[in-house]
Each structure stands twice: as C-alpha cells, then as structure tokens.
Amino acid sequence: MKKKYLSKLGLSLTISAALLGASDLANAQGRRGRGEERSQENQAAREQRQQQRQQEQQNRQQERQAAQQPRQGEQQQRWEQRRQEQQRDSQDRQQRWEQQRQQQQRDSQDRQQRWEQQRNEQQRQDQIRQSRERDDRWQQQRQEQIRQSQERDQRWQQQRQQQQQNRELELQRQRQQQQDAQRRQDGDRDRNRNWDNNRRDNNRDNNNWRQRNWQLEQQQRAERNRQDWQRRQNFLYDRQRLLEQQRRLNQLRYQQRYLDQLRRDQLRLQQWRYNDYGPYNYRYRRGSSYYETNRYGAEMLQRAINDGYREGFYAGQADREDGYRFSPEDGYGYQDASYGYDAYYVDLNDYQYYFREGFRRGYEDGYYSRSQYGRYSNGSYSILGAILEQILGLQLLN
C-alpha cells in the first residue's frame, strides 16, 4: 500500500515537472524578447515551485512518519512480545534451576543420610567388634586367673598337707618329750622324800601344769582358726564369682592378692611354735572397756591396725579405679579381717575389731586418693602413729 502511494506521488511529480518544463519552453520561445521582467517572474515561479517542492517533501516526510507510526507500534508490540517471551523463558529457566537446585539438595541430603547410615552402621559394627574383643580378653583373663588360682590352690594344699604332716610329727615329739619329762618328775618325787624337795617339786609341777594348760588352750584356738579358714575360703570363691559378674577387675585382683596373703599366713601359723612372752602387763581399750594382754598380744594388735589400714587403702583404690561406689564394708578384707592373726594371746574378735578400724581409714584414703590417716613410706602404706594410739589406747602396766 505504501509502495503504491509512493509510485503515484512520483508519477504526479514527474507529470508536473514535464508540464512545467513544456510551459517554460513555450514561454521562453514566446517571450524571448520580453526582458528582465519575465526573468523575474520566472524567478518568482521557480521560488514558488521550490517552496512547493519543499512543502511536498514535508508532506511526504509526514506521510512517511505517519506510515512509520503503525510500523513502530508493531515493532513495539513485537518487542513487548519478545520481552514477555524472554521473561517467560527466564522464569522457566529460573523454575528449572530451582527444580534442579531442589533436586540437588534432595540428592545431597540422600547422600548425607546414606553416609550417616553407613557411618552409624560402621560405628555399631566397630562397637560390637570392640565389645566382643573386650569380652574375649576378659574371658581369657578370667580363665587365666581361674587357672592360676587353681594352681595356687593345688600348691597350697600340697604345702598344707606337708605342713600338717610335719606338725603332727612335731606334736608327737612334744607329747613324747612331755611324757618323758613327766616320768622323770614322777621318779624324782618317788626318790625325794624331803618336804622341801616335795614342795619344790609341787611348785614345778604346778608351773608345768599351767604351761601345759596354756599351750593346750592356744593350740585349740589355733585349730579353731584353721577350721574357720576353710569356711572363709569357700565364701571367698563366691565373692570371686560375684566380682567377675560385676566386672570389677581391680577389686578382683586385690581380693586375689589378699587371698595369697591369707594362704601364706596359714603356712606361717603351721610352723609357729609356742613361746612364753611373759605376763599380761599391757592394757588396751575397746570402746569403753579395757582388756589386758602381754607384749606379744600388744604388738599383734598394733599390726592389726596397721595391716588393716594398708589393705583398706588398696581396696579403696581398687573401687575407685573400677568406678564403684564408696563401700568399705563391702571389701573382702573388711569382712574377713583375719590377715596377720596368730591365734595366740588375743581373741579373734578383738583382732578383727582393730583390723577393721584401720581398714575403714585406709579405704577412705585410698578411695579419695589422699593421706589423711596414713603415709606412704618404704614401698608400703602405714597408719600414722597418733591415729594408731588414738584407736588402741595401749598402756604399759607396772
């Protein structure tokens, strides 16, 4: 449409120009002689035509602008469409990117979750494996301890039987010597008729009788102690199984060491021989009452407190290492309280009382890792002298 309009406009201008050219030619031929007036008219006509052409150019320019406005509108519309399409494409890309990002996040979370599951499973497997290894090591240690305990029991039983045989032989020899001495004394009484000699013989007989009676009493006490030892040993085996179930390995090792000391005590007592340690010239306090003993009994009670402190310290230390609660009365050393007891000059109940007094204080120091009641010296723990005197209250009698 635009092209047709421009073609018509060009044809019109061409015809106009042709007509104007023909008119100019005719006028030139017809008025060739007119002069400057005609020339001026022509000049005015040219100027008019020029103005007309300018006007026509302006009109054409306006027409072109008018024609271009719809096209610009179309371009604006197309641009707007392209912008909207680009915006939709951008939104689609944003949406796809967001979907990809969410998918990546889900994939990352899935991978993280699988990794966590694998790690937890690996940790669980490692814990199970470590637990089995600990159980295996504990079973091996327990079996080794049982085996060692059985071997020690066998050796101890053999030594005990040998010591028992030696003791029976020694008792037979002592009885024979006593019978021989008695026969000699009887013969002396028969031969000596003098009253003074009879009095001296009677005094000697009384002394011998008191000595034989004291020896018999002490031997009976030692025999009761040996019979009670078997009962305490059975109780010890029951405690050993309990500690194994509780997995208190440090307390179990302490109890085994205490048992070894008791066995050595039994062997030592089987070789012990009676000696006269003099009169009862010492007094000790138990609660609000006082009791008397001789020098040997006084030393044994002091050892009971000191040994009790040492054994209590080791027992408290073992419970602390096992993470067990504070309980001195639960320790086998406290319940037995017979380590170091010789069964002579002091009753077992008195010995156990003072042993436990030392044990409680040692257990407290060992459990809390301190030295309130005792000290460490020369590779061993011992109770302070002031604390020992405070517990025992020992006095020398005139």
State the gist of this model.
The chain is mainly α and 398 residues long. It has helices at 2-30, 36-191, 195-246, 249-270, 295-322, 332-336, 348-367, 385-392; strands at 282-286, 289-293, 374-377, 380-383, 395-396.
What does this structure look like?
The structure is a single chain. The protein has 398 residues and is mainly α. The chain has a domain at 143-396. It has eight helices and five strands. It has a three-stranded antiparallel beta sheet with strand order 2-1-5. The chain is rod-shaped, with a radius of gyration of 64 Å. Residues 194-211 have low confidence and may be disordered.
What pattern of helices and strands is seen along the backbone? Answer: HHHHEEHHHEEHE
Q: Nearest-angstrom radius of gyration?
A: 64 Å
Rounded mean pLDDT is 77
Q: How much β-strand is present in the residues?
A: 5-15%
Overall spatial form: rod-shaped
Total beta-strand segments: 5
* Helix content estimate: over 70%
Give a quick account of the main beta sheet: strands, pairing sense, barrel closure.
3 strands, antiparallel
Structural class: mainly alpha
- Poorly predicted regions: 194-211
Q: Enumerate how many helices there are, as a single number.
A: 8
**Adjacency order of strands in the biggest sheet:** 2-1-5
N-end to C-end Cα span: 155 Å
Please outline the helices and strands.
Blueprint: H1 2-30, H2 36-191, H3 195-246, H4 249-270, E1 282-286, E2 289-293, H5 295-322, H6 332-336, H7 348-367, E3 374-377, E4 380-383, H8 385-392, E5 395-396
Antiparallel strand pairs: 1-2, 1-5, 3-4
